Amino acid sequence: MNLSPFLKTNNLFAAALFAVSLIGLQSCETDMDRGFGTYTVTVQGDSLIDGVRSFMTIRKKGKEILKDSSVVFKNQIVFKGQCDSLELVAVEIEGITGRFPVILAPGTTQVALNRDTINLSSATGNKPNEDFMGYREENKVVNQKMMAVSLALRDAKRTNDKVAQDSLQPIYQESISSFRFFPYDFIEKNADSDMCLLMLDEMVQARLNPKFLDRVKSSYQALAKTIQKNEINRRRGARIKAAIDLLENTKTEANTP
After folding, report:
1. Backbone phi, then psi, for 110, in 5-degree steps?
2. Cα distance between residue 219 and residue 185, in whole Å
3. Of 88, 187, 232, 233, which cross-links 219 as Cys (Cβ 3.0–4.6 Å)?
4. What is the H or E stretch that residue 227 is in?
5. What pLDDT was estimated at residue 149?
6. pLDDT (0 to 100) of residue 13
7. How many other CB atoms are there within 10 angstroms of residue 188's CB atom?
8. How far apart are CA 105 and CA 249, in angstroms?
9. Could you tell me which of 195, 187, 188 has the C-alpha nearest to residue 233?
10. Is the pLDDT of residue 7 over 80?
């Protein structure tokens, strides 16, 4: 678009209208586009008791930090606040064993509570949590396959069935490899996902096995467009790159005679 007629005009009114139109275009960006905004997380369950307390925590530098708290009212819990970037948080409810992981994201998230097994609850309402639920479901399938092969191999060893052992051993090794590298495979298949960028960031900030360096690098490269999506993602990408560089330097120093 040639903007020179607007920039050179002596008509101040026209120039003012042009400036307003630019502001209007910028205001079309959503909180998710910018990477921050207000959040509302609503947890619903049929047997929740009014007044019971609930907490939302986040782990930073190995410590659990309280992010938000609320109380049950009319079978639901509502958390509200400001979200500066996507965060992985855990929801805990007094009287219920366990916790449920949720991606804290700008906008609204609905959690359908499974009171008996809180880890089997589900979160919907935005792409980060839908991606996260997809990740959890696929990971469960990979884990179940590995466990099934492991049990079959154990039975073959117990009965000294050499033929079964020989046929199951390569399948078992393959299932172990699939489970170990599943997070990287998922990231690379869903490279447009902000949740995947958050996940890789969480992974590299934890203690990372140098053997996985090549997969970390390939996942980081796959996320290149997502990293450039907004300022929040660029900061996260820079943090991942710094962790990769540190790991590469450490690996080089360890191999230097």
Report:
1. -110, 130
2. 8
3. 187
4. helix 224-227
5. 94
6. 39
7. 16
8. 34
9. 195
10. no
